[in-house]
Amino acid sequence: MAGKRPIVVQLPSPSGGRRVRVDGEILGLAHNVRDLVEFLRRAGLEIEPEQVADSPLIDWRGVGPECWEAPSRT
Q: CA-to-CA distance for 5 and 40, rounded, in angstroms?
């Protein structure tokens, strides 16, 4: 799977939270790093909260792990 990251964390949804997929399967809607880590643990992927920002396995869409809230409307 060279060059491909199996974990995708989508942009925050309009209602808040970010959809998490592993190998194309939706694991759920994470509202913070703890939720993400728990979804990954349940999928058999052990990763520490402090590792998510720099993990080569995670494709952060649009923004990184610091943003979980809905985008503000102007």
A: 14
Residues ≥6 apart with Cβ < 8 Å to 21: 7, 8, 10, 27
Q: How far apart are the two ends of the chain, measured CA to CA in Å?
A: 40
Does any domain span residue 1?
A: no
- For residue 16, CA distances in Å to 4, 32, 54 come to 27, 10, 23
Q: Averaged over 3-20, what is the pLDDT?
A: 88
For 36, the domain range is 20-73
Q: Using one digit for the tens of pLDDT, what is the confidence trace for 27-64?
A: 999 999 999 999 999 999 999 999 999 999 999 999 99
Q: Which two tokens stand for residue 12?
A: 């925050």
Our measurement of the distance from residue 29's CA atom to the centroid of its chain's CA atoms, rounded to an integer in Å, reads 9
Structural domain total, the chain: 1
